[in-house]
Each structure stands twice: as structure tokens, then as C-alpha cells.
Amino acid sequence: MPNMRESVTAALNSxxxxxxxxxxxxxxxxxxxxxxxxxxxLWRLKYDNDPRCYKTAIFLLTKAMRKHGESRELCEKLCxxxxxxxxxxxxxxxxxxxxxxxxxxxxxxxxxxxxxIRRTSDKDRMKALKMNAEQVQKLGKRLGAIHxxxxxxxxxxxxxxxxxxxx
Length: 167
Description:
Layout: H1 4-12, H2 25-32, H3 37-46, H4 54-65, H5 72-87, E1 99-102, E2 105-108, H6 122-129, H7 133-138, H8 140-164
Antiparallel strand pairs: 1-2
């Protein structure tokens, strides 16, 4: 059985015919729609590859993360950086497979140590945020908190959709 993200994504691009005896795409969409907006926008952006959701996701993340007295512009930049990292989470060297061919042999990718997960360096973040190393290091915990929030909303949509579908 495909995971919930795949099921909802397939439902977003299918016929919405209904059938009381079987779970159909319309049922998954109905369950998905019960989640809060930030979560559904994140899912549509990442799993349905809907670029129209990008600005809305940045806006909602900024709204959720902005601290009293913090510059909206700074918070927005941090949210954009974290969101971009979440969206492109596969190792750029091996494409997420964890292995590469080296001297006609299949070996673990040296970039990700075989995990397939992209590791974002401070240098990458300096470039994305247009900041120096010291500034990026100071903001590391803040970026981590935004990543945590994105992951939390991703999980919340999954759990809520499964509850609604009685799985």
C-alpha cells in the first residue's frame, strides 16, 4: 500500500468518483482537507510539486515563526531557506540513491555517506541567505526550529488524514 503522501498526491490528480464500499480519491481528498492550511500547502508543494503553493508556504511559515520584534524580512529569508532545504532533501551527488558507480563498482556515496539525504553546509546557507559565516552560525538554531516546524506540520497532515480515513 502506498504511503499517505503518495495516496493524497494521486488523489489530487484523479477522478473524484465516489463509492461507499471502497476508499476512493475523493475520500482521501476529503480527509486531507481536514488538516490545517500550512500542512496542506506544504504537502501540495512538496508531494504534488505545485509551485503555486510556494509563496503561500513562505507566508504561513513566516507568520508561524516570527518572533515579537523580529524583522519580517529576516524571518521570511530564514523560512525560505529552510523550506528550500526541505524541498530538495535528496543528496545532489547520488540523487538520493545513496550509492554511485566508481571504477565500475557500486559504492556508497561519499557526499551523504550512503544515506541519500542532502547535507546542507554553512557555505550553502551563506549563499542562500546572503550572509557571512558568523551570521549563519548565529541563526543555526533558528533554522533548526523552522525545520522542526515544517516536519511537525508534515507529520500532522499525515496523522490527521489517516485518522479521518480510519486507518
